[in-house]
Amino acid sequence: MSSPQESAQQPPSNLNIANALTVVRILGVPVFGWLLLADGGESVGLRIAAWVVFVLLMITDKIDGDLARSRNLVTDFGKLADPIADKALTGMAFIGLAIIFDSWLFWTVTILVLVREWGITAMRFAVKKYGVMPASQGGKLKTMLQAIALGGYVLPLELWDNPAADVLRWATHLVMAAAVAQTLWTGAVYVRDAITLRREARDRSAG
Questions:
Q1: Which of 116, 131, 126, 179 is nearest to 151 (CA)?
Q2: CATH class, 4-206 region
Q3: Among residues 83, 185, 199, which one has the least CA distance to residue 134?
């Protein structure tokens, strides 16, 4: 029988509530996508429903992170699956909104952001043998800015002809500009960290 000290040192199981919420977030992506794109994005009711689903799914990101840290449920699966869940949800939002607005600027931003997001995700898997790269504080700020901006665009503000909607649209544009800048900056930082992680692992092997 293992001692209490040995039990405390055992890694947490992947079958925990934090990881379950991450999986729920991934499974909710197609539901959100359908609500967003149904009727060509012209239905106010469905767009509001899509916004509600988007907000709820993003909230699970905060909840599962807090649970994982407070209950010692941090796992390698969670470190990898959590950013994938975020990118699947925000990626669906970017692509769906680009389809709805169909502007060269939104498509440019979407392509730029998604290339960075999935490129960094692929890099995480590539360097996994050297060590796991958890989400940084800068990455979390990037996700928050993206979520706020995308949430603003998901709301059918362009279908509401009133001054308040106009103000919210401009505020959304500004937040999105900040989100894109943070996305590119943190992408460069992750590449630097991956190179450092790989070099340090090779130095240890050589030593």
A1: 179
A2: mainly alpha
A3: 83
